[in-house]
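Supplementary material to the annual report.
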Amino acid sequence: MNQSDLLNYPGSHRVYEQGKLHPEVKVAFREIVQSDTVLPNGETHSNSPIRVYDCSGPWGDENYQGTIEEGLPPMRADWIARRGDVEEVCRDGRVWMQAKPGRGITQRAYAKHGIITPEMEYVAIRENLGREQTFRAIYDKYPNEKSRPDYVQHELDKFTQEMPRPSELEAIEGFGPNRLEARENLSYQHPSRKSGANMPTFFTSEYVRDEIAAGRALIPVNINHPECEPMIIGRNFLVKINANIGNSSLESTMAKEVEKLRWAVHWGADTVMDLSTGKDIHMTREWILRNSPVPIGTVPIYQALEKVNGRVADLNWDVFRDTLIEQAQQGVDYVTIHAGLLLRFVNFTARRMSGIVSRGGSIMAKWCMIHEQENFLYVHWDEICAILATYDVAVSIGDGLRPGSIADANDFPQLAELEVQGELTMRAWKYGVQVMNEGPGHVPLHLIKENMSKQLAWCFEAPFYTLGPLVTDIAPGYDHITGAIGGAMIAQQGCSMLCYVTRKEHLGLPDKEDVREAVVTYKLAAHAADLAKGHPSAQLRDNALSKARFEFRWDDQFNLSLDPYKAKEYHDKTLPHANAKKAHFCSMCGPDFCAMRLSQDIRNRDEKNNNLI
Amino acid sequence: MNQSDLLNYPGSHRVYEQGKLHPEVKVAFREIVQSDTVLPNGETHSNSPIRVYDCSGPWGDENYQGTIEEGLPPMRADWIARRGDVEEVCRDGRVWMQAKPGRGITQRAYAKHGIITPEMEYVAIRENLGREQTFRAIYDKYPNEKSRPDYVQHELDKFTQEMPRPSELEAIEGFGPNRLEARENLSYQHPSRKSGANMPTFFTSEYVRDEIAAGRALIPVNINHPECEPMIIGRNFLVKINANIGNSSLESTMAKEVEKLRWAVHWGADTVMDLSTGKDIHMTREWILRNSPVPIGTVPIYQALEKVNGRVADLNWDVFRDTLIEQAQQGVDYVTIHAGLLLRFVNFTARRMSGIVSRGGSIMAKWCMIHEQENFLYVHWDEICAILATYDVAVSIGDGLRPGSIADANDFPQLAELEVQGELTMRAWKYGVQVMNEGPGHVPLHLIKENMSKQLAWCFEAPFYTLGPLVTDIAPGYDHITGAIGGAMIAQQGCSMLCYVTRKEHLGLPDKEDVREAVVTYKLAAHAADLAKGHPSAQLRDNALSKARFEFRWDDQFNLSLDPYKAKEYHDKTLPHANAKKAHFCSMCGPDFCAMRLSQDIRNRDEKNNNLI
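Predicted assembly:
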């Protein structure tokens, strides 16, 4: 199988759900179709298709015909224009949109004014994962509480825990008063099943707006990136993951970067950071932006440094400002800015095990040392925020002093910078800029909680966006896993987005297989946290897959998994014959020892006994 | 590179540390040699070798010449014979050792009588990982507190937190009164660095004995498996991992199983379970036992079922008892027995998402249903314990009703069985049998803690031994990772041993690469938990690797990692030239953007400034 075959998901097709407030909103999902369950008596019953979150944009639509030379259709162009608060500017052969003077055009500004934008409705629908349909199916199938299997009951319990207003529910077709009544009779709630997160049962556009207004969430969507499908980053929503791409001076070409982008979003990257440092940074980014259905993040200081030929001493505010404006006008959705790294912190890193491991952080630290001046990104923070607000570029306040080894975790320089990140957050919010904070790094398991709780407290609940954290230093070659362990844990505690780490971390540049492995690994870590946080519909997919597994619907099991091709490939290695996909046993135990089969026999017996009564 | 090359660790050699109480005890470690640090002024200083825990037995000794046909030398044969409480029996052409009538010959029995066996001293030395030497090195290098880098100070703080008695310390060469005084002046203790675990600073033979007597730990060493090197399973020691091997009716041969065993212990499996279900179970096990330096576990019901030709209905106490005795006399170190699965629990599994997924569990459940009788393993528990005590076979009380999907986690059947496991634990202890309890399974992150705390409370702090837990169902092909995430978390909370899950879980039979990937993945998860629990010397290896990384000692970085060959292979993919191993940058950022190098420049500058003062 060649790699382009992998760009399809088997047993899946694209579906869209339309907005109600904004009918122009059409949210893309991937729907996985399931085969029927065959009961021992030969009876069959159908299994509902499962809708899953889909980052792949138009490329994931089997009817889409576009090429990467044309770029994706500018879905949001109308939404942006219709608001009447931006203007088109042409200068030096370039064209861009910017806020009209005095107008607040960020999603935060709208939210603060109580406005629900199409972007907000888009993410509200997106986060629900088609739940309405699923609960309708459950009620239809198990009208009587007593007949419901425990796992169904469990789903319903969660549903009733935070009941939407009845009027809202009735608006959902099929949820009449009778069903509401039935739901009120439910009582069982396993006490330990409660999670700590403040997750609503149902995501409404109002809820999205209020979370953005409170600064607890952001939708990174530059007005100059109309190809971008809105997505939300915040701890009361699905945990998101970021994949890094970008050429370095050692490798890569432009077309390869677009290919990497497409590959990353296919496997489920919610945002992509372009960390290019080589030649042709501007043009590479142009190709990426025009072809990206997900928000693109950058670290502008890299390009600024290229402009001064790699001489850190020659960096200055002017060249940085021009670079930032260039990227903002081009359409970058969020930028990492290492403004929290202050001159007085730098000396403290000399006694560290691993000094400074952040690229941006070490550039700024070196600049501060050379000039014996305060970090110019900190000094010019207000001007930076004014620029970002003009294009609705979100800021990801960098953690230039993040620990690069277990020994340095939660030390003074790291926490000192975090405190400054909090100050910068509050100041950026005043300009209407959407904000998140970057976090470590290398942190042992028992110190992760402190990172999360201090970030929430010191940065006023702004979303946290962490790299890993990696929970040990001794596993180079396996650092996607050390990072996924820390990532799952910090996400459970409230981290909103995880930056992936590939197995090549610390060693080399990731190839496509490394990116696939890393994206899927972080998807599963993020999903584990979604389950733990009590995201209302996250578990539907687990349940569907487990039911398929239990019923030996092998193809459904593959199709429902995060990486269907790998699941099938591993199965085929032991049992390559096509009829093994229908076998009522698997290779691990062989036909006589199959636990699943024995236990199905028990269930069948139980059903027979019940029928006799 | 062919796979037999992988059976060496580069830059490493075998060292032994002798017992004091029992001079016949010689504990094997692997010592990783490091190259010198080269300072910018050309000065060099040496880096101490790092000792690591070594599961590979004589095979890891570069001077060992034995073949798998001969089997390993019976290291413990003398220790066992000298105690004078066992007798040799020959019957039907077989020879075995058993307790003399009325004698308690289990490690638990000895511990209860205050006896420190060679096995106990062995594990005490083994758990310390050569710490004495390391601290001596630190004191020699940084006699003045002010000169100590933060990470060194951190190690010393932990050391002083629970000070050994001065007399003990003075017995360690080089730790005179002066040094003690210096240590008492240390005051800095980062509050968040404290971990919850009750981990001592220094493992003594007395401590090992007391933990075993309390039932909080066990040393699974059958008197008929003298080839086995003692290792301890308990939550106040290093977290251990188990690898499963075994032929099924679909695949595998005997020699292949021995090869798998050797492969698994090379990568770091602390124990190995032989889960064979096919033909020649007895002979396969013989080969495995005679060649295993680690404890071998089995699930005797599998072989019992083979004896009745796979007909569950025909199983009975007699055939099980005979099988158990056969295995105990052969040398199996611990056995999984699903005695906690009671008849009255079985019906509750019919409403589950995934029914019963444990092989042993489904066999016993089916037997109970067919005969409408109580589980004969529960009924005959006292007789089972008496057999186990005769050979010092430890029991791992199985969790036949463990959840097989997120939906079933922590449900009634699972927790009901756990309660019975507690009852059985207490009863086994009365016979002097060493006990651990098996645990789930599929459990979402937020329900893991309940598993651990209920197990500790209901099973009287007996060691917990879990499969994963897997924190989501949707990642077949990546279940080594879903299991490692849950494993790291439950181990941090007190789980003593993790059973690995390979990426083929749910899909097929693992091959050698799958086993390698899984063992290393679980090693890193276990190590992450060791760090979090505050194991006194676990972090030394992280520190050494991070220092090597910071100083661009590439080969040291590879050699110190859990899988040196993979680390080097990944590095070579981007920078294949030999001189890149000495490059003061790496492939990720290229020479101009190297954060590590920039940050070394800062440190060098700092040192220069200090010298000027």
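Residues 512-533 of chain A form the longest helix (22 residues).
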